[in-house]
Amino acid sequence: MYGYNGKVLLVNLTDKSYEIEDLPEEWAKMYLGGSTLGARYLYRLMAPKTPALAPEAVLGMVCGVTNGSKAFMGTRIAVVCKSPVNDLWNDSSCGGSFGPHLRASGFDAVFITGKSEKPCYLFLDDGKVEFRDASHLWGKVTSWVDDTLHEELGNDISVFQIGPGGEHQSWMAAIICDKHRAAGRGGCGGVMGSKNLKAVVARGSHKIEIFDNKEIMDANKKCVAYGNKGEKGEHIMHQFRTTGTSEEYGICVLAADAPLKNWAGAPEDMPEEYAWALSGPEMDAKHRVGQTGCVGCHIRCGAVYKAHYKNYDLDHATRPEYESLGALGSMLLNGNSDVTIICNHLCNEYGYDTISCGDTLSWLMECYEKGVFTQEELDGIDFKWGDPDAILAMMEKLCACEGIGVPLQLASRGCARALGKGEECCVTANGIELPMHGGRFNPALVRTFQYDPTPGRHIKGGRGVPFSHNPDEVKYNYENTGKDDVAGLLEWEWSDLCGVCSFGNFLLPPGAMQQMVYGVTGFKFTPEELHKLSLRSFTMRHAFNLREGYRRKDFVIDGRAYGNPPMEKGPLKGITVDNEKLGDNFYGELGWDLETSEFPKEFCEEQGGLEYLYPDFFPDEACPA
Amino acid sequence: MNINIRFRTGEILKGIRAGEYSVPDGCTVREALDAAIEENSMELADHDREYLFVLVNNRLGEWENTLKDGDKLWILFKILGG
User: Which residue in the set B8, B74, B78 is minimally distant from A466, CB to CB?
Assistant: First the structure.
């Protein structure tokens, strides 16, 4: 089988056992990799109604198709699990070195169940599997653990680990790779921590058999040429090479795309200079000391930063991504770039998702402003909007998991419910804090936020972020949105299971990813087959939720996210998005039940690869042999 | 009439002057931008224009919007997601 080791590792931490299964070739062709292949396995391995943090819960790490090949930008790995926030399907993607190293260690995926009696780490070493003691690593920040394990095991490893946030089983804990790349969303780090699993370390020399390396090299050449002078990708590639995603920050604030003040603010609430202070060119001029990027990426959109504030003196932090800038910047009315970089660094070190972290702090700021929490309840912190000292102090409470930092581990809605107040200020989709592109600015995202199987994501399929640039009469027209919405599923499902960075959707020439997948595996898909693949992938993730008993009515989104009630000021004044109409159109286009979001058998038969769902979803109907 | 134009367009139109521009009454956003480009002896390729969008008085605008005296424009690099 080209492109795969053909081996999947199943680990049980309770009894420290494991087995190695063959990856069926049919599954490779039908589900490819990433969260789609992960969904197939998780459905089989994890019984319904298993609590997300129970020992019986399963955590998966699944290579994307291009991991282990020379395809540019092809290093992303998917983490799959149930989210502790809402007990729904969760998948989160991560760049960096772990995906290729997992492939090189001899496995295409690893699924972990059980709970170790004591903190441990899993060492996947060229086909061998070892359970190693992690007591000397537990409680330590990710950079220390990464350095320590490299000293102990050598430089040819990759470490995929939780920080103290995951050890506290935080619902906003991330899994961190290379000290600053994260599978951030949905609390997957908390799931890992609930198993007393500090890290998965991979090393190896396995080389997958490549179908046609010339195709991959040709695709790579086209990727480079796309950014040449005069080519369509020239300027976007230059932007990413120089300032990464941070270039967008000030623009998004100005345009009222980036949220401010826990989604209640308008651009006029923050001085314009704050927006530029956290934007790429300005930050680079003040903080940049070097460039960085993921393994195998020809763009290398990251930067190494220095930052200084009070007793913090960092000389090797990373430039925050756009989402982090919004969550730790405009959401808090914060214009201090040093503090933003430090908070981003703390999230990397302690293993927290920057989006949920910033949103949670923003929620708490609003609660404090409204008197829901007193200063005493916040451990004496005068938690005012935009106060850099207060922001840092609260981050430190979170990282130390002390005082108010304890309930904050549960993120905004979890904290509100634990303390019995403040939920009216939450802005989430099924408990998941929202990313930094607003639904009132871009109604297309409201459907994605509310009805994607992983709620609260902007890089899941649909009409997408660029839809925001349409004229108002297009953007706020809720008729006939289903066709484009469903067609838009492909882009993001495809980049995920390919293992290619999401930015490839606009940084790579059209057709490049398909050529890479073909070069690696020999799999060639017609446009119709690609469309079916995207629908199959979406359905598999949704089916996991349906099997848990969720129906459409259970996919809820807080009103402020879509303008209910509408804002009374700013460019988005008066806008309320018709979220239910968008949902009706979406499910209607799929041919699914509008009330329940259940899919008919005919739909499954048309897409293929969904027969495994029939016993649960169509038990009274004849199943194929 | 006078229009204030500011730019945040990365490498596209790099170095173009930000500030007041005198344009014909009733011109569109597109025409005002083209006037600024011409005044600065620059060019804007069609595929580069696709990467730009405009705010008119801090609200999302369109290239064919008619301007009035004193309007403020931001010409910005498109939001693609990050």
Answer: B78
> B35: distance to nearest CA of chain A, Å?
22
Cα dihedral sign, A352-A337-B19-A569: positive
Question: Going by C-beta distance under 8 Å and a sequence separation of 6 or more, which residues neighbour residue A494?
Answer: A513, A530, A533, A534
> Which neighbouring-strand residues pair with B6?
B74
Fold of the CATH domain A433-617: 1.10.599
Instruction: Enumerate the CATH 3.60.9.10 domain ranges in chain A, comma separated.
Output: 7-203
Residues of chain A with C-beta less than 8 angstroms from the C-beta of B55 = 254-255
CB neighbourhood size of B14 (10 A)? 11
Whether domain A7-203 has CATH 3.60.9.10: yes
Which residue type sits at A369?
A: E
Residues 6+ apart with CB under 8 A from A81: A42, A52, A57, A58, A59, A60, A90, A186, A188, A191
| CATH code assigned to B2-77 | 3.10.20.30
ipTM of the complex: 0.94
User: Which stretch of DSSP H or E encloses residue B8?
Assistant: strand B2-8
Distance CA A496, CA A491 (A): 9
User: DSSP code of B23?
Assistant: -
Burial environment of residue A419 by CB neighbours within 10 A (0 to 12, 13 to 18, 19 or more): middle
Q: Backbone dihedral region of A87: left (phi > 0), alpha (psi from -120 to 50 degrees) or beta?
A: left
Which part of chain A is CATH 1.10.569.10? 215-426
| CATH class of the domain at A215-426 | mainly alpha
Inter-chain Cβ pairs, chain A and chain B, closer than 8 A: 75
* Strand, helix or coil for residue A374: coil
For chain A of 625 residues, list the mean pLDDT of each consecutive stretch of 10: 97 98 97 97 98 98 96 95 98 96 98 98 98 98 98 97 98 97 97 98 97 97 90 87 92 96 97 96 97 88 96 97 97 98 98 98 98 98 98 98 98 98 98 97 97 94 91 95 94 88 87 95 94 95 98 98 97 97 98 98 97 96 57
Q: What is the pLDDT of residues B14-33, one digit of tens each?
A: 999 999 999 999 999 999 99
* Closest residue in A to B44 (Cα–Cα): A230
How many of the other CB atoms lie within 10 Å of CB of A282? Answer: 18
Q: Where in chain A is the domain with CATH 1.10.599.10?
A: 433-617
pLDDT confidence of residue A625: 46
